[in-house]
Structure formats: C-alpha cells, structure tokens
Amino acid sequence: MYPGLTEKYRCNCSSIGSESNVCDIRTGQCRCKQHVTGRACDTCEEGYWGLQLGGCRRCACGPGASACDPATGACACADGVGGAHCDTCLPGYYGFGSTGCLPCPKCQDGKVCSPHSGRCVCPGGSMGAGCRQCARGYWGAGNSCRPCSCGAGAVSNICDPHTGQCKCRSGWEGSTCEQCASGHYGPKCRPCQCHAAGTRDCADGLCSCDEWGRCPCKENVVGEKCDSCLEGTFGLSVDNPSGCTACFCFGRVSQCTQAALARGAVHVAAPLHVTLQRGHQDVITTMDQDSLLAIHTHTPDATITLPWPPVPVYVELDKRFVGDRVTSYGGSLRFKVEEEGGTELSREVLARFPLVRLYTKSIVLEYFEHAPVINGSHAVRFHESLWMVRGRGVASRSALMLALRRLDKILIRLTTRAPTYQEHVHAL
Hints:
Helix content: under 10%
Number of helices: 2
Distance between the termini: 128 Å
Largest sheet: 7 strands, mixed
Strand content: 25-35%
Low-confidence stretches: 1-7, 281-288
C-alpha cells in the first residue's frame, strides 16, 4: 500500500510482469520486467507480445507489419502484405517494402503478376504463347507445370515434359530414379553380380540380392554370390533347381568332384517309318500298360495292323543306348515324331501310356509328358523329379542312378493316332 493525499491504495503489481509486489510510494508504479509496461506491469511494450514470467517476446514480424497482437503475436500486416510474419506480398500485389505492397496490373493470356517487378509473366515453370508449355526442368501441362525433382540415380534434373519420367543411370529405376533396379543393391545401386546358375529367382540373367549384396542361393549352392557347390554336391548348372547335384557313389563314399568330361550324343542310324492300319473291330485284343506294342529300330519300314481298341506303338532303341548310362544323368533323350492321317487317340488312352519307359532287371521307370509338345519334338531329361517308378510313385535319385547303371531296354512312344477304314497312319 502507498499513502495518498486523502487515502491509502494497494500496489496490485502483476505477479508475472513485475519484479516484486513493491511499488513507488508516490506514483504506485511497480518495477516491471524486461519489455513489460503499465503501472502494474501487466502489458507488453509495443512490438512485443505474450506476457509471461520471463517478460514479453519480440514480435516476429517483417517490415510489412505495423505491430503484432499482444496476446497471440499475430502480425498486423500492411495493405497487400501477407504471410505469418508479414514478409511477402499477397497474390495480386508486388514490390514488398516497409509501406506494404502495390496492386498488380491485370494480366492476360495465362500470365500472372510478378511479386517482384509487377510485370505480367508466365507462372513458374511455364513458357510460350498463353503459358501452355513447360520450361526445361519442368513437366505437366500449361499452368500446372511442376519441377522434375529427379533423384540421385538420374542422369540430370531434366525429365520428360509430359510424364515427369527422369532418365535413370544404369542400375536405377523409378519415375524419379530414386530406387535400385532389379539385380542392384546399396545406396549407389551396385550390380549384385550373383551367379545365375546358383541363384534363386533370376530373370533374364538378372538376380536380386539383399541390401548387403548377398544373393539367395539354391538348395545345394553356397557363397555370397552363389558360385560354389555345397560339400557333397557337384556340377553347378542353371537347369538344376537345386543348383548342384548330390554326389551318388553307390554307397561307397559321400564326396565327389566333377569329371572333366564333355557330354556327346548317340544317334539312331536312320529314320524309322511306320504305317498303321486298322484291325478288325469284331476281334477284341486286350493291351495294357504292361504289354506295350513295340517294334525295333532295326526295322526301318514297318506296317502294323493295330489291335482293337487301338493303342500307341512303341519303338525299342538298339543296344548302343543301353548298358551303363550313368554319365547320361542330367542329360536328355531327344527325338522327334511326325504323324499324319487317322484320328488322335483320346487323352484317357494316352494318359495310361508313358512317353518313355526304361527297363532293368529289378525296376521299370516311366516318363510322362510334363508340357505341351511343339512340332512333335521331345527332350526327356534324366532327372529323378521327372520319372516315376512303375506302380510306386516318383523316382528317387538312387532308383534312377541304379537304372542307368544297368539299363536293359528303352521304349519310346512312336504313335498317338489311330487309323480309320479310309486312312492309314504314317509315323516317322
């Protein structure tokens, strides 16, 4: 309290704006904190706002504002001035300064007023008559041109003016060249360099890897780039789903190395020509999958009267194709059949008769078609996953290897058509 001429008054100093609750005994003025004013220290000085325990804060306004709201700090912009801090011209104004901004002239042909000069110019990134063309480094259409924004993998920051597609360096992809292409990794998109024969999920010779450049190896392959066979396997091959083939040494040892051999071919001496004619329909002959109708390659030209119902005819390969054929594992038996005349045997009939049958003294293996035949050409691969043990199921590695070691007979299905009364079947 302080004494007056006739009565006493309380100081009532602001608890947050004054240094203490003591005031001048004559005027009642409290001792204010920095940038605080008023007798009771309850108001911010002009150009300041937000009274609090530390005093008031300076208004963050540009030269285009006269003051700010003492409670919120919002700047009071001059005419034509905008922005949170009153530091830019509003649309339709130009020439920012301490006195505000000037009105723009009326622009035509798609042009806008420059906020700096007040001249009518094309919007940012556009050019040409009517501002309908994007400038170099921009893309889009007319007044909606956007910057190219090409990424680290781009050749330059110039993109297609219609699509925005940037031109990527080798190993990069994406509309802005911002990510690694397939078969590349890391921040610089280096090539994975995976060994295609030993890597899973390769396409057109390109294999993907993880962010550290490690390639996903096939089952029997090891190495960061999948270029080595697992111990106990050999023969890295792109055609092998497991990459390398497990060693099979007939139970004697478990380790092996790939022999320095080149696979050759054994050919039939001459093409085989067969003519099929229709048998008597009133004579029923039972032919099943155990007793196949076969001829030998020693008979280059043969005429056969088919039983009824008709069945496929097989050809037995000569002795050059049998015996010890272990080295044929992984290779293929290739042949081509050309037929004309007659009618196609039903799918139900053909499904019962294998394309190829291998005979040994202890086991019979069968190969059925796995894909549509093109131009009558067949390539039958010697791999256990493709063969069936007759009456049992899919062949094992040991079953196929034992069969190839002591091969007694090979039958190949020669015909898939049946003759009619009017037309014989000719097969080559």
